[in-house]
Amino acid sequence: MAQNTTMEEFEALLNESFEMDTPNEGSVVKGKVIAVEAGQAIIDVGYKMEGRVDLKEFANPGEAPEIAVGDEVEVYLRAAENARGEAVISREMARREEAWDRLEKAYADDQRVEGAIFGRVKGGFTVDLGGAVAFLPGSQVDVRPVRDAGPLMGLKQPFQILKMDRRRGNIVVSRRAILEESRAEQRAEVIANLTEGQAVEGVVKNITEYGAFVDLGGVDGLLHVTDMAWRRVNHPSEILSIGETVKVQVIKINKDTHRISLGMKQLQEDPWDLVAAKYPLSSVHAGRVTNITDYGAFVELEPGVEGLVHVSEMSWTKKNVHPGKIVSTSQEVDVMVLEIDQAKRRVSLGLKQTMRNPWEVFSETHPEGTVVEGEVKNITEFGLFVGLPGDIDGMVHLSDLSWDERGEDAIQNYRKGDMVQAVVSEVDIEKERISLSIKNVGGDKFAEAVGGVKRGDIITVNVTAIEEGGVEVEYEGMKSFIRRSDLSRERADQRPERFNVGDKVDVRVTNVDSRSRRLGLSIKAREIAEEKEAVEQYGSSVSGASLGDILGAALKGDN
């Protein structure tokens, strides 16, 4: 009877155990630590199930595990039983599930979450958000690039969740968003206490090519390079260094963007207030070249006052060269004040005006008619350019190259670099032009030779060549040609061969052409003129005297 009772009790207990609700695998259950041994915690999760969890799963990144016998913890039930009959549980997975639930709620409510940076990965860092691991991009660590993240490692601090995907297990957080938000509040408070025109002190936090950022006590202002000093500043590092305390003036505050523009030079006296009085027009001053551009050079007259020497005002003679070939940076030069624009704060300067006009000097030292010598600098289709004293050029036109040759032919006799002599024909100072003549060196031989000869004169010439069409003759070194038809009034005597080279012949001048530099000569015209004169003196057309009688009388009279 007792045996039957025991069997019934056992059966009832067995049925009771089958009817008990056992936790589902993949769920979070509560358990109690019943022992700690061999680096593991043995946890009773109820339902007559026990499992083991490594102690490291109870520790936060960078911290020692805090677990003791009797502690109640939540664990994740991965499997109800393994090969050893133990439950397979995980504290880390339980924390992750708990964390994801908490983080999803915070993400939905746009709330901050607390975490700690515990590792570095490509492109950023890993953050423990109380069981869930998130990615912190490098650009989201701080408002400015962070060179050393060591002080931030393991430090619990707030983060903003930017993006999360539970299915993929991805969470992206930002520390920068938190800083910017708190910084915006701080900026608003500081800006509320600032007014435009106010002088404040600040610390130089960063230096760039275009200026420096100055911390005004929680808010940064930009001190642009052009507002650092009245003089030209090539780089802010010339006058500022990081960490330096400077006094600045608030120039402008943008209430919408919270941007603050600062200035240092505004606290100093403006040198432009005295420019007009100190630098009157046409006055000459010493200055220093500070910058060279394609269009000219900037010259500093005093700190804060610069003027531009335009390329056209740099040299009398060097017209198409870069300003850097005339002056160099830091060179001391004398300049003349040409124009002052007080409104635009501009001074126009001249460099060449401090030197005498070389065309003026040449005109004084080389009046028209002076013979000069120079090197052929250039040859063009219309003439030669010859280098002259004062680093200027004179031009010899084609028509001034030779008396005897066409200009196009004469120019072929010259080469670049040849030394030539020429006569100064004209100097135009305003147009900066000098006209030269090579053919006039030694005077005009044609004019000298025929200076007293006029049309109708009888002159004696020497025969220099016999040609089929006539004879070539020479008078005082000047060549002329007598055509066959002009050799005699008698057709039978119009034969060139009846003359010999070296013969002296009397001819009548029929034309004096200064342009072609030729004398028109004719024996025939001389004979006709002599006959006419004889008729007038020794007979008339109505006297009945024959031509032979008249010529005989004329010849007798001559004798």
TrEMBL record:
Signal peptide: none annotated. One of its GO terms (cellular component) is cytosolic small ribosomal subunit. This is 30S ribosomal protein S1. Binds mRNA; thus facilitating recognition of the initiation point. It is needed to translate mRNA with a short Shine-Dalgarno (SD) purine-rich sequence. It comes from Pseudooceanicola albus. Gene3D superfamilies: Nucleic acid-binding proteins. NCBIfam families: PRK06299.1-2, PRK06299.1-5, rpsA. SUPFAM superfamilies: Nucleic acid-binding proteins. It comes from the Bacteria. GO terms for molecular function: mRNA binding; structural constituent of ribosome. InterPro entries: NA-bd_OB-fold, Ribos_protein_bS1-like, Ribosomal_bS1, Ribosomal_protein_S1-like, S1_domain. Belongs to the bacterial ribosomal protein bS1 family. GO terms for biological process: translation. Residues 26-92, 110-176, 197-265, 282-352, 369-439, 456-524 form the S1 motif domain.
